[in-house]
Amino acid sequence: MKKLIVSYSFLFLLFSCSGSKRGAWSEQDKTKAKNHIQESGVALEFLGPNKQQFMDCYLDKIEKKYDNFNESLSDTKGSDEIAASCLEEIIF
């Protein structure tokens, strides 16, 4: 019985740590977000050498605001506000 409890505790800990949460996304969610931003790369060319700085800012802020990448996609208004905020930080 004791081994069963330890086994279940280990499995619970393993699965609870593998997902994304606000401020600590999984590598899979970070990769999805980076790929999504890079797909918009042509639209970001106007930033010139500041493009990477914008991408880093945006990724950092969406990770802090949303529990996972899919949640960030479902909030277009919030994502747009974050993008505008990053643009202001870089340009001004």
Distance between the termini: 63 Å
- Give the % helix: over 70%
What string, H for helix and E for strand, traces the elements in order? HHHHH
Overall morphology: globular
Work out the helix count.
5
- Report the major sheet: none
* Radius of gyration over C-alpha positions, nearest whole angstrom: 18 Å
Q: β content, as a range?
A: under 5%
Which ranges are low-confidence, i.e. pLDDT below 50, for 5 or more consecutive residues? 3-18
Layout of strands and helices, then pairs:
Elements: H1 2-17, H2 27-39, H3 51-65, H4 69-74, H5 76-91
Helix pairs in contact: 3-5
Keyword list:
92 residues, mainly alpha, 72% helix, disordered N terminus
What can you tell me about this protein's structure?
- The structure is a single chain.
- With 92 residues, the protein is mostly helical.
- The protein has one domain.
- The protein has five helices and no strands.
- It has helices spanning 2-17, 27-39, 51-65, 69-74, 76-91.
- It is globular.
- The protein starts with a helix and ends with a helix.
Summary?
With 92 residues, this protein is mainly alpha-helical. It is 72% helix and 0% strand. The protein has one domain.
